[in-house]
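Q: I have 346 residues here and want to know how they pack in 3D. Can you give me a structure?
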Amino acid sequence: MFGNLEEANAFKPHISVLIPAFNAERYLGDCLESLLRQTCPDFNIVIIDDGSTDETAKYCDEFCSRHSNAIVVHTENQGLLLARRTALAVAKGTHVMFLDADDKLKANAIENCYRYLDDCDPDILMFRFSRNPTFEAPLHFSGPKAGAYRVQDTIRSLVLEGNMNSMWGKVFRASLFNDKTDYSAFAGVMHGEDLLQLAEAAARCQSMLVVDDVLYFYRQSEEASTACYRPSQRMDLERVLNRIVSYSKEWKLEDRAFACVARNVVYLLGLLFIDTSFDKCAASYEVKALADILNHVLDELGNPRIVGTLRLDYRFIIVSVLHSKFGLAKRLVTLRLYLTNFRSGS
């Protein structure tokens, strides 16, 4: 751990900004600069250098030596999920905000978050993001509609349905997370790690506020774990879903859990079918492996008819996968991607 830790610990703001960083030297400067430009200085910064092999560690040390409200923890490489858990254990704020090292916040982001927290005191505050570094509002907002949510089943359903997706773009009451929860079995998980932690937060969440304020810039890079298909993503999904199914059974939201599985499978199929590095034989193997995941979850839920509760586009795709209709699945997924891109204007 680096920095004036006693001074950093004595500084107890409401919000701790948590930044996991692995070989992030290319964009980390922009990320941290966006925090220096905040119109409200009442926050602290926790950076987790996750075993970086470039100049990230040096940059973090220099930054924290100049700013008393910032500390860095240097760890062996443990992956994004465990890096975030480490940050949660160190955070001192009553609320936490996750910021990826290649993204940035709008200058008034923290000031506006405090205003929303003061007005409504939600357990989770969710705001919008832009893919434009000028924070220009997108044509269509993703995620749940703006408003206050105070029904626990509704909030849990939004998480399971994938309408909240990421750990970033939100402020969480820190007490939603249990630092005793053991995530060691998920070390290295990249696909679905957000879902795991969002489900944990949803288990305790009583209220959520969603606002249309665009406060976060999300940078989609070619190196991102979600930029192309990898068999490890499928294996990650398999590891994560057992815990998600357990949550859904406890909450009696099994149909939402299967919708979550279907959404993730369709997403991975989209990556797979546009990835030209996979020939038909390799792609067919991956589709079969995804079908095995679907069948495993159906067995766990004990209700094969739950497929019929899916929305229509997902239902057709999932049925084609379950019946080993490779060509049909590819055509349906490709059509869905085309329509999605057409509606988004991209």
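Q: Anything worth noting?
A: Residues 280-301 form the longest helix (22 residues). The two ends are 43 Å apart (CA to CA).
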